[in-house]
């Protein structure tokens, strides 16, 4: 039986992120006052408490900072994927993203693995995910 994919709900804070993802661009917030890059989006800079920000395109390259393998199937849409890796990727520019790592195995997924963004079509949303890359 086929199950509809899980598609994230796009909140107003995330609209610029998913608009960029639809063009296969990865963006993060940049504080207008101190220049700190941050993700996920929020209204106030955690460094300087400035409340003005812009969006900046990043390289889409990073490395695996941490990960685990999800075995629990909380929704039927994930049944065919499980077990699947959930990871924190640190981008070359600094911010971290919680994501899935595609195209990897239990043997190949390690902390420090170089990865690059890919945009997976889920419903009508382009969801940034990561896959291994050559360093
Ligand atoms: Zn700031």
Please describe the topology of this protein.
Blueprint: H1 15-22, E1 27-31, E2 37-38, E3 53-57, E4 61-70, E5 84-91, E6 96-100, E7 114-122, E8 125-132
The protein binds zinc ion (ZN).
Please tell me about this protein's structure.
The protein is mostly beta strands and 135 residues long. It has one domain (12-132). It contains 1 helix and 8 strands, in the order H-E-E-E-E-E-E-E-E. The protein has one helix at residues 15-22, and strands at 27-31, 37-38, 53-57, 61-70, 84-91, 96-100, 114-122, 125-132. The strands form 2 sheets. It has a 5-stranded antiparallel sheet, covered by helices on one side. It has a 3-stranded antiparallel sheet with strand order 2-1-3. A hairpin with a 2-residue loop joins strand 7 (114-122) and strand 8 (125-132). The relative contact order is 0.21. The model has no long low-confidence stretch (mean pLDDT 95). The site of zinc ion has 8 residues, from loops.
Q: Kindly state the number of beta strands.
A: 8
Strand content: 35-45%
- Provide the gyration radius in Å: 16 Å
Biggest sheet features:
5 strands, antiparallel
Structural class: mainly beta
Short description:
With 135 residues, this protein is mainly beta. The chain is 6% helix and 39% strand. It has one domain (12-132).
């Amino acid at each position: 039986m086929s199950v509809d994919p899980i598609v994230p709900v796009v909140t107003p804070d995330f609209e610029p992120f998913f608009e960029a993802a639809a063009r296969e661009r990865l963006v993060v917030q940049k504080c207008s006052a101190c220049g700190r890059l941050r993700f996920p989006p929020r209204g106030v800079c955690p460094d300087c408490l400035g409340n003005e920000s812009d969006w900046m395109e990043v390289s889409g390259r990073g490395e695996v900072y941490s990960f685990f393998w999800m075995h629990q199937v909380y929704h039927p849409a994930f049944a065919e994927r499980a077990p699947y890796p959930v990871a924190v990727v640190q981008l070359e520019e600094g911010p971290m993203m919680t994501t899935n790592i595609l195209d990897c195995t239990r043997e190949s997924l390690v902390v420090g693995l170089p990865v690059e963004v890919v945009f997976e079509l889920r419903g009508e949303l382009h969801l940034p995910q990561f896959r291994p890359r050559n360093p």
